[in-house]
């Protein structure tokens, strides 16, 4: 069983920055894809950004140019650097890790709250 532990959420003013971390209980290169998703109150959980084992990245249009997904394999950790935050970024952010082989495996973290407010 894989454990994903997120950290780094909190309260930030509009225009501010936060960095989220997602640490896995095993090598992040064992996953075909990892990503960040977010869920605002009363809304669906949506993709924010993903990164494949080959390093390809993908972003939601709403965060392009403001958010960056990257990883540190030595720490088994994936990050989401969030800049120029606005109130629409307020949500619970979830880390996800997926494996395609063997019928597939899909893991989620517990979520971390990000609140953008003055």
Name the descriptors.
118 residues, mainly beta, seven-stranded mixed β-sheet, four-stranded antiparallel β-sheet, globular
Q: For the terminal residues, how far apart are their CA atoms?
A: 40 Å
User: Order of helices and strands, N to C?
Assistant: EEEEEEEEEEE
Q: If you average the pLDDT, what whole number results?
A: 96
Rg, nearest Å? 14 Å
Shape: globular
Largest sheet: 7 strands, mixed
Strand content: over 45%
> Treating each run of at least 4 consecutive H or I residues as one helix, how many helices?
0
**Low-confidence parts, pLDDT < 50 over ≥5 residues?**
none
Number of strands: 11
By secondary-structure content and strand pairing, the structural class works out as mainly beta
Helix content: under 10%
Give your account of this protein's structure.
The protein has 118 residues and is an all-beta fold. It is 0% helix and 53% strand. The protein has strands at residues 4-7, 10-12, 18-24, 33-39, 45-52, 57-59, 67-72, 77-82, 91-99, 105-108, 112-116. Strands 2, 4, 5, 6, 9, 10 and 11 form a seven-stranded mixed beta sheet that branches. Strands 1-3-8-7 form a four-stranded antiparallel beta sheet, with no helix packed on it.
């Amino acid at each position: 069983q894989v454990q994903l532990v997120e950290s780094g959420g909190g309260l930030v003013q509009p225009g501010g920055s936060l960095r989220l971390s997602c640490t896995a209980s095993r090598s992040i290169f064992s996953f075909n894809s990892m990503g960040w998703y977010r869920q605002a109150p009363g809304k669906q959980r949506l993709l924010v950004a993903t990164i494949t084992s080959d390093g390809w990245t993908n972003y939601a249009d709403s965060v392009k140019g403001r958010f960056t997904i990257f990883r540190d394999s030595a720490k088994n950790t994936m990050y989401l650097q969030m800049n120029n935050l606005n109130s629409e970024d307020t949500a619970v952010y979830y880390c996800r890790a997926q494996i395609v082989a063997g019928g597939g495996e899909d893991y989620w973290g517990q979520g971390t709250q990000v609140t953008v407010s003055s």
